[in-house]
Amino acid sequence: TLVNVDGAIVPPAEARVSVFDRGFLYGDSVYEVIRTYGGAPFELDHHLARLAHSAERIGLALPWDADRTARELGRTLDAARAAGGDPPSDPGAAPWNVGEWYARVVMTRGAGEIGLDPALAVDPTAVVIVQPLQGPPARAYADGVKVVVVGVRHEAPAVVDPSAKTGAHLNHVLAVREARARGAHEALLLDDRGFVTEGSSSNVFAVLGGRLRTPPLAAGILEGVTRGVVLRIARAEGVAVDETSVRPEDLERAEEVFITSTMREIVPVTRLGERAVGAGRPGPVTERLHRAFRRLAGGAVGV
Ligand code: PMP
């Protein structure tokens, strides 16, 4: 693991930001999680565009522009590779996660006098954390995972714009806490009308009558980069797609359910709470889309 703090690349123990940093005090920050395939960041342009969108939505002036961010990410990846060689491989790892890197880019409004007023922030902070990728194990893809619909509600779009990927994630932290207590891999959050929105760190899809269904962006969800890739792939594969609202009952009667994120790619959901999804095994549409995803993202890295 190596950390780039405002352009200085240091080991984790030396990576420091001020306790007056508003990212720490208020979650007043934006971030992206990016992964590599064959050592190269995947869908980097989309991640950088979303970072700019997030910053714009909360009026945060990014300390680095997109080019600088890409350069600093590249430098940090190079340094991590040089320092550690290839990351060790976990025997249970899915082949496409072996020898790859995780990168978290965090930009905060910076430190200043304590107080909510954003004008108190003096100097924005930029951080890039690079470490060996720990994706879901091969087992998660082969057998599927359990997810639960949690009691914690999704952020209302009128309160915090969920299309902005900010560091203020307490409801997602509590959602994961509840999911873990119930033995689940991921938490699905409902909005205040009871519609399914997204996972704590994933987007959700269902196969209903052979058609792919996922909540629309208007549901106030994060525009997942992986979600976008999956929608593109589905259309190219001739799978009909509906971006329409989803109720928990729709997931219960779905033939297949899966979740997507940068770290997960496409992970089949075979249990929803205490019930099996479909046949209780990863389904054919999920497998087909994941194969197409693998061809696109990691053809060189094995299937
Ligand atoms: N929703 C939320 C709330 C998330 O935090 C994430 C993870 N970034 C996602 C969806 C999936 O987005 P992506 O495919 O860009 O990783």
From TrEMBL:
EC identifiers of the protein: 2.6.1.42
A matching Pfam family: Aminotran_4
Keyword Ligase: no
InterPro entries xref list: Aminotrans_IV, Aminotrans_IV_CS, Aminotransferase-like, BCAT-like_C, BCAT-like_N, Class-IV_PLP-Dep_Aminotrnsfr
Catalytic activity line of the entry: L-leucine + 2-oxoglutarate = 4-methyl-2-oxopentanoate + L-glutamate; L-valine + 2-oxoglutarate = 3-methyl-2-oxobutanoate + L-glutamate; L-isoleucine + 2-oxoglutarate = (S)-3-methyl-2-oxopentanoate + L-glutamate
Entries under Gene3D superfamilies matching the protein: 3.30.470.10, D-amino Acid Aminotransferase, subunit A, domain 2 (3.20.10.10)
Gene Ontology MF term list: transaminase activity
Identification of the protein by name: branched-chain-amino-acid transaminase
